[in-house]
Design brief:
With 637 residues, this protein is an alpha+beta fold. Helices cover 30% and strands 29% of the residues. The strands form 7 sheets. An 8-stranded mixed beta sheet has the order 5-4-8-2-1-12-15-14. A 5-stranded mixed beta sheet has the order 17-18-19-21-20, covered by helices on one side. Strands 6-7-3-11 form a 4-stranded antiparallel beta sheet, with no helix packed on it. The radius of gyration is 27 Å and the shape is globular. The N terminus is likely disordered.
């Protein structure tokens, strides 16, 4: 064991020396060997830049930009050790989850530690949002969200970071980074006579500082990639699908026209030369999934499904994350520009960073004919319905500023009410400018005034927007974003000839379930849709005879899919198949009097039921010419 460990360290030191001699200037020099995985853990080695002083604190991030929740990546680091140039150990004190104090720091030459992954870990409390997490599956897939692998010294973030990735020759790294060197044979670099080195390669990357490093995820697996040219930008699609249900080529074909539309939406030229979409599809049961944006890439964690089942969802996700190259990655406040990974200060403007980004993701699709105007109204309606479940009596700026604290349970509303704020501003701007100026123009003007290297002051943004637009826009922001007044949706929709009713009684065909009736239950260790409140089902559900605790296994004889993209498609299919007077059937698992799980068949005739439908919106066929002109400016390119 000692001989093997010595060899690993010699290889790491040799590779690090190669990278350092190339760059010359003082920098962090990291080495990670992806071919040496033990119990889903990987060793990390750091050759440190020169350090002054007798003590220094080494950090892993507490939080990273774009997540708006505490991660504490240091929880997944163990066995951290520090050494001087002669290999003698230096004293290390682990002062909290994410920080280690190192003594005699002026003698420090090397730091080593072991990283456990976040996807498959015994640390089940406070799980890390998967698109910001790490995965270590030997020979299959390794996700290097860099925040989980690489740390920094206090006061030393703004210097170059070079990292060497040792990989098997059949692994490929999907990333938005441009490598210094790719695929260098390890045997050549290390000068070692290890027979296994012939099948290993080294990729070398350099970032200008720690912020850029943490902004740069990588995914290593057997290559499944595709490239799309979008204007001046080379777009890489990297995919890992454990059962090959979906490929990078299929994803590229699905999202290509969305990306082309976004290019036009942003004026025909994109602010990056290379961009990577990195997709990790899991075949495990999931209760949540999503994506995380970066300046030159975005990372997606999703249930594995076919392209047919997740086509529109992929397009929606991609449209949202890609627009983040504008906000907040180009337009942002000082809190984001000078992000503190271990003592974060939140901005007031999630309505802009996430809300307007989500608004643009839908707007671009209707403007360029990827969805119909009627489909777009339904998208907006769903956001109203979801937003109504959240707090609406607190200024949205406060919810944003304190999203890590008292309002952390309100965060998801930034994608709902935040998008509706963007819609309201867009329509008001179109009305005030006779259709000539909207949110697209405003964001472009903000980008010209500020941009990636120049942040705005958080408290001054509304004044800046007012100066660029109209006093009425400043008043709207004051009342409905910085204030707690309810969004004037009826007034806004009337400007574009859209009828709006907060509530309306309708008679519809129904599967018998209402959201208030549904819960998640475990069956054989897997989450399933179940009846949590039988009193909340509608008349169709009462005719079927649902009971509390029923776990739904089949609808109309078809198996209920697991939680994930397939489920929504399945429900829509069943809803669309309903015919008045036909038969609706369910198979549920229900406990009998002995407490045993038994399959029970439920059947009832399909009938229309009275439902109180919230937020009903539709185009007014009697809209005035003025309303139609503003509507056209709002929905057309």
């Amino acid at each position: 064991m000692r001989i093997k460990l010595l060899f690993i360290l010699l290889v790491a030191v040799s590779v690090t020396g190669f990278a350092q001699s190339k760059k010359g200037a003082a920098s962090y020099q990291y080495t990670v060997d992806l071919t040496k995985v033990v119990d889903d853990k990987i060793n990390v080695e750091l050759s440190v830049p020169p350090i002054k002083g007798e003590e220094i604190t080494f950090y892993l991030p507490k939080i990273v930009p774009g997540t708006y929740s505490i991660a504490d990546y240091g929880r997944f680091v163990s066995n951290l050790k520090a050494f001087d140039k002669k290999g003698a150990a230096l004293a290390v004190e682990h002062i909290n989850d994410n920080a280690w104090k190192i003594k005699n720091a002026s003698k420090l030459a090397k730091v080593t530690y072991t990283v456990d992954d976040t996807y498959d870990t015994e640390l089940t409390a406070d799980p890390i949002f998967q698109p910001a997490g790490t995965n270590i599956e030997a020979g299959k897939n390794i996700i290097l969200n860099t925040s989980g692998f690489f740390g920094y010294f206090e006061g030393m973030k703004n210097m170059p970071f070079t990292f060497n990735i040792i990989r098997s020759k059949d692994f490929y790294g999907s990333t938005g980074l441009i490598a210094d060197k790719t695929g260098e044979p390890l045997a050549k670099v290390s000068k070692e006579k290890d027979p296994a080195a012939a099948d290993k390669r080294v990729d070398v990357y350099t970032t200008e500082n720690y912020d850029r490093l943490i902004d740069s995820p990588l995914m290593y697996s057997k290559a499944d990639t595709a490239v799309i040219k979008v204007g001046n930008t080379e777009v890489l699609i990297g995919s890992y699908s454990p059962n090959a249900k979906i490929t990078a080529k299929q994803i590229a074909e699905s999202v290509g026209e969305v990306l082309q539309a976004q290019k036009e939406f942003l004026g025909g030229k994109l602010p990056v030369d290379k961009y990577a979409f990195i997709f990790y599809f899991t075949d495990q049961q999931v209760t949540s999934y999503g994506a995380l944006e970066h300046s030159y890439s975005s990372f997606y964690y999703m249930p594995e499904a076919t392209i047919e089942d997740m086509n529109q969802q992929l397009r929606d996700f991609v449209a949202h994350e890609f627009f983040h190259i504008v906000t907040p990655l180009t337009i942002h406040s000082e809190e984001i520009h000078n992000f503190d990974f271990n003592d974060p200060k939140m901005s007031k403007h999630l309505w802009l960073y996430e809300g307007c980004t989500e608004y643009f993701a839908g707007s671009v699709q209707v403007k360029y004919g990827l969805i119909t105007p009627e489909e777009y109204l339904n998208v907006l309606r769903q956001k109203m319905v979801t937003a109504s479940q959240f707090l609406d009596t607190v200024p949205f700026t406060d919810i944003s500023k304190f999203t890590l604290e008292q309002y952390k349970d309100q965060y998801y509303n930034v994608y709902q009410k935040g998008a509706l704020i963007g819609m309201c501003l867009d329509i008001k701007l179109r009305k005030l400018s006779n259709g000539k100026y909207g949110m697209q123009n405003l964001v472009a003007d903000l980008g010209k005034k500020f941009g990636k290297s120049k942040a705005f002051q958080d408290d001054q943004l509304f004044a800046e927007i007012t100066a660029l637009t109209y006093p009425e826009i400043g008043e709207f922001l004051k009342r409905y974003v910085a204030g707690s007044e309810v969004l004037p949706l009826q007034e806004i929709f009337s400007l574009v000839g859209v009828k709006f009713a907060p509530e309306l009684k309708t008679m519809d065909l129904s599967l018998g379930l209402e959201n208030a009736a549904i819960t998640i239950a475990q069956l054989d260790g897997k989450p399933k849709i179940a009846i949590g409140n039988a009193n909340a089902v509608n008349d169709q559900g009462k005719a079927l005879g649902f009971k509390d605790g029923d776990i739904i296994m089949k609808i109309n004889g078809e198996d209920m899919p697991d939680l994930g993209p397939d489920l929504g498609v399945f429900i829509q299919k069943q809803q669309g198949s309903l015919k008045e007077g036909g038969t609706l059937s369910y198979t549920v698992i229900r406990k009998n009097e002995a407490g045993e799980d038994k399959a029970v068949e439920l059947k009832a005739p399909v009938k229309k039921v009275e439902r109180l439908k919230k937020f009903v919106i539709a185009f007014d066929e009697n809209a005035t010419p003025e309303q139609l002109a503003t509507r056209k400016a709002w929905l057309s390119k």
